[in-house]
Every structure is written in structure tokens, then in C-alpha cells.
Amino acid sequence: MTSMNPEKDVKTLTSRREILFLYDIRMGNPNGDPDENRPRVLPDGTFYVTDVRLKRFVRDFVNSQGKDILVGNVEGRVSNLTGRVSDHLRKSRKAEANGRELVDILLESFIDARWFGSSLAFKEDKGSAKLEPEPKTLTGAVQFNMGEVLHRAEEIRIQGTSLFASAEDKRAGTFTDFAALRYGLIAFNGVANEHSAKLSRMSDEDYDTLLEALWKGIRSAGNTRSKVGQVPRLLVSIEYKPTVEYQFGNLLEYVKLRARDGKPEEQWSSPEDYVLDIDRLVARLDLRKDKIEKIRFDVSPDIEFSDKGILSSWESLGLDD
Asked: HEC string of 17-73?
């Protein structure tokens, strides 16, 4: 396959992939509204999580594992692309880089650029050549829809006070007041496109790193108060045969929850309150099995399926092994 740099032979994503990813949160805020920092909600009462929030979980995880990321903070400051390119040029003992070479530097250095792309905005460094990347906007190989809570959920308000002793042995109090969901099972659908991967240079290995970062990033994000109740529950990777031009497009349509013991959805507090019904998903996948190379998955031991559940032909990702 050809890369953006004709001198390099980069083996990119070999086929189309689709991702179904479910995780839950208990007594937390999965994605704060920018105005009131409340859980985000649609007019029909459905709570949702943006793809930007999911990508942040992924980026933070790979960064914690020692991989450089393009979109993030460096020593408490927002990423400066010009500075990062300048650093790379200094290490490479190059005087300057222009056009496509700039994009080459970013794609070689940052895995999140290969996944999600970027709007490549640069400033000019004094005394250096103009930084003009080609293209100025790069579409990533991986796209996620907005995530949705799959059931009716209840927003609650958590209030309280905390007391701290000062050096003068005085007591000072601070108020706790934040909005959260009693419980929510959130589902995301994603697509990895092999054609876009040729431009962004995303490889099969990069894709596997993404799956790991989805699963482990949700859990590791629980070091903040609003995200402490997050747990990954189900991850399915549908991997089509090479050259197959097909995808389902919205796997969420084939996933339903069934209440146990008639408990109202708003009162759910864990997977013990429902069973996960993926029978339609299994049936749809079976109808298109001639197009599918393999299906890989990981699942929480707390999840109970309604009937068919995971098939024996699906391969375990083993992300918690």
C-alpha cells in the first residue's frame, strides 16, 4: 500500500472494522454539559456522551503507557504543534520541514493522529520556514458516533460538606454539589475505514492498541470523582474480509436491555438489574458472515445475556488476562 510519503512503505489497516463498546457508570457524571456540568441529555430524555469524551479516555490511557499523543496537555499546557515539530527537527538535526513532510512527522510520532486525524493548525516560528502542512485537515481512520445510555436513567444531585483543619487549628468547610446518574449503561458504535487508514497510516497494530485503550481507558479514568464508577462491560470488534465494502453502520440498533424482576429502569443500579439482549446483533452478523473475517470480543463477567449471547466462534481479546 502506498503512504503519503512515497519513500516509505507503510502497511496500513487491512480491512474495514466496526466496534460496539458498552460501559457503565454508577453515581457519576459520564460527560458534563459545558454550561451546568450536568449529564448531557437529549430533548427526549436520553442521556448521551460525546465522541470527544470517549477519545479523551483513549488518549489519556495511551499517554499513561508512555506513548506520545498529539491532542493533549504537555506539562500542564495545551499541545503546541509548532513546538512539537520543532522538537522533532532538532532531534533529527534538520533545519526545517514543509508541506507533506510536516504531516509525515505528526503521523509517525502520534498514534492518536493516525486514529482520529486532526486539524493541523500551525504558527510560524521566528527565523524558520513557514509551517504549511498538506493537507491542513486530516480525517482519521476511526470515527465514533455519539454514545447513548441504553435505558431510561435518573439524574440525581449529590450534596455535602467537607471539613479541613488549618494550621491555626481552625476548621474550614467546602460544599460538595454535583449532578450524576444513578446508573447508566452507555453504548458507542465506531467504524475504522481502511481507505482513510492509507492516508493516516493507521495499522492493524494501531487498531489493536485502540481496542485495548477503550477497554482499559474507561477503567483507568476512574481516578476522578465524577468517573469513579465506570466499568467496561462489552467490546465487540467486527473485522471484515479484505476488499469488502460493507458495514452495518449503527450496531446500537441491535442491542436491547431486559429488566429483571420488573424493576423500573430509572431504579437500576448495576448489571444485576437487567440482562443484555444481543440476539438481533448475532442474527444480523450471521446473515453477513460471508463478508466477515472474524469477530473478537471482551466481556465483563457481571454481564448476563438473554439467550444466544457470545458465540463460540467469536475470539476472545483477552484484555483483562
From this structure: EEEEEEEEEEEECCCECCCCCCECECCCCCEEECHHHHHHHHHHHHHHCCCCCCCCE
